[in-house]
Amino acid sequence: MNIEVRAKERSQKTRLDIVDCDFHPKLTLEQLKPFLSNQWWSYLQTYGNRSRHGYAKGYAYPKMTPQAARRDAWPPTGGLPASDLEFVQQQHLDFYGISAAIMNPLSPTGQGDQNIELSIAMAAASNEAQVAQWTAREPRCKASVVVPYEDGVASAKEVRKHAGDRNYAQVFMLSRTGEAAGRKRYWPIYEAAVEAGLPVGIHAFGYSGWPMTGSGYPSFYIEEMTEHAVSAQAMVTSFIMEGVFERLPELKVVLIECGFGWLPALGWRLDKHWKRLKDEVPHLKKAPSEYIREHFWVTTQPMEETENPDQLIEVMNWIGMDRIMFSSDYPHWDFDDPFVTLPPSLTEAQRRDVYAGNARKLYRLD
Predict the structure, then answer these.
(1) How far from 226 is each of 7, 14, 167, 196, 343, CA to CA, in Å?
(2) How many CB atoms lie within 10 A of CB 264?
(3) Helices (H), strands (E): how many in the chain?
């Protein structure tokens, strides 16, 4: 699916405050170069990076469009989608009246690279580049602290390096980690995030080195897209069962581009099992659904859009209207238009909270 730039007059019909919680700026290796040592720049030129999957070049499946981007998001001045600040301002930030955008850079960041030292260096460089290329030039943009999450100690060091810097709004990971995300090897990341007062945003995708299904690699891209909800369920379950939230009661986790229609059913199922098997996990002090409602936030793109809009409202109410935040996924092909995304039956107050209020509180944007 591709969409075209909408008519300009459309932007004049809304004055709602909008915080976009999933904007993907495109960094380049040249932009990372000033923040990499000569050693790592030379390494990249000679060996390149190696993701944790069995494909020497590119992703496991061809995307539907180049760079997974909207056809109209390619800047007229050249370069890749979301690489040109002025064009992003024109097409996205100014056009929709977006007052803040949480940046979630997907590449090149080194996350999940098989060479963990390279991953550490590239994550650090991408954090510096976000400020140099975006937040220093556009105050509406807020950076994410990209962490080399397969090394929890190095990740914690990177988080603490940027603690207190208001250029950064969250700690950033991908959903397919080498081990289940609640395991202790990742706890240093969460401890550092709590210390810094930052939520942990976990975005769909990433390559762990394992097939994304329990039965190997799927045949089609549509299967990979649907699998995000499955990996997110395993991630949420691991966070709860490993006792992360008992250890860190102030930890806040944002599920980005993972959908959320599955979340109530997961809570119901976990509660049922927990009632009979709670002696296996005595460190849990409350029902799993309570941890879900207390510690997780979700973003709207993509929503499981039901034929009956009231069913979606019921799901949103179960999660909590104060835990749902708008996201566009700009500049990707499955972008959600801020003007028409939310169910029309939301109240005015709910729309304001989902569009901006919840994000402003979580990310302390005011």
Answers:
(1) 32, 32, 33, 33, 22
(2) 17
(3) 14, 8
Q: What pTM value is reported for the model?
A: 0.94
In the DSSP assignment, the letter for residue 296 is E
Burial (CB count within 10 angstroms: exposed 0-12, middle 13-18, buried 19+), residue 242? buried
User: Which tokens is 334 given?
Assistant: 């499955």
Q: What share of the chain is helix, strand, coil (3-state, %, to 5)?
A: 45, 15, 40
CB atoms within 10 A of CB 277: 9
The tokens 């069913």 sit on which residue?
A: 311
List residues bridging with 256 in a β-sheet: 203
| CA pseudo-torsion sign 337, 339, 342, 343 | negative
- Comparing CA positions, the residue from 167, 165, 160 lying closest to residue 195 is 160
Q: Residues 6 or more apart from 66 whose CB is under 8 A from it? A: none
* Upstream peptide bond of 288 is cis (omega within 30 degrees of 0): no
Mean pLDDT per block of 10 residues along the chain (366 residues) reads 50 73 96 97 93 64 74 93 97 97 95 94 98 98 98 98 98 95 98 98 88 84 87 96 98 97 98 98 98 98 90 96 98 92 92 97 95
- DSSP letter (8 states) at residue 114: S
- Beta pairing partners, 255: 202, 298
CA angle in degrees (0–180, nearest 5) for 229-231-233: 70
What span, in angstroms and rounded, lies between the C-alpha atoms of 176 and 112? 9
Residue with tokens 């105050």: 139
pLDDT given for residue 294 in this prediction = 98
